[in-house]
Amino acid sequence: MSDAEALRALMEADRWIDRVLAQRDHLPEAEELTTLEADLRDEVVQIREAEAAAVPIRAAYEAAGDRADRIERRRRELESALTASTGGARDLSAMQHELESISSQGDVADEEALALLEDIEGRDAVIATLRADAKPKLARRDELRAAIEQLRATLDEEIASLRVARDERSSEVPESLRRRYQHALDRVGGSGAAQIVDGRCDGCRIGLAPLDLDRAKQLAEGTFMDCPSCGRVLLS
Ligand SMILES: [Zn+2]
User: Fold this and answer.
1) pTM
2) Which of 51, 62, 220, 226 is the most exposed place for a label (fewest CB within 10 A)?
3) Of 25, 24, 2, 19, which Cα lies nearest the Cα of 191?
4) Domain ranges of the chain
């Protein structure tokens, strides 16, 4: 195998690893999960806000219920007192008057309690809808988490075995060239070599100056120049 072939094989091995790493770090499932989790966080906030807003309404409803009960008890007392009463006309009339007043207070309290109950039911329906909407999203979140974990484990295994193959290829590149390659790889990532395609370095995609292109063409077999832009060892 020529030095150029060994270098090319190493470059391709590193590019392959790089592609799998990119795949591992940009799983569509992970992107979906990020969006979904943001949605769920928003919904949790909405549910909490709706629940918090309902708390004083529930308290007001209970208070209105207690008030209505007290009024009802008083109304009954008055009714039985009236029925059993043997008092004078003036007493009866005063009691009758209070009974009318308390009855109308009772109506107001009942209406108030009913309005509050309707308000609470409306709020509960909104909260129930929010919860129902979140439920399938929670299930999808768990599904995505499991899928991502599995995909990443599979890709990690693949990367580990590609690295073993890569190191074998690396050992086939002469040491001084390998050092140049590794230096460029450490600095720019991806691979430490690149090819000239249509006058451009396909590592950094920057076009070579005509002078550099001429120089690259005139290089003796087994000698390589570095890309003036990214520093990768250039293969023609
Ligand atoms: Zn370059």
Assistant:
1) 0.74
2) 220
3) 19
4) 3-173, 174-236
CA of 221 to the centre of ligand 1 (A): 20
Do the Cβ atoms of 195 and 12 come closer than 8 Å? no
Residue 231 has a pLDDT of 97
How far does residue 207's CA lie from ligand 1's centre (Å)?
Answer: 8
Rounded distance from Cα 189 to ligand 1 centre (Å): 11
Centre of ligand 1 from the C-alpha of residue 78, in Å:
99
How far is ligand 1, taken at its centre, from the CA of residue 23, in Å? 23
Share above pLDDT 70 across residues of the chain, in percent, rounded to a whole number: 100
What CATH number matches the domain at 3-173, 2.40.160.180, 1.10.287.1490, 3.30.450.20, 1.20.1540.10?
A: 1.10.287.1490
**Alpha-carbon torsion angle 132, 135, 137, 142, nearest 10:** 180
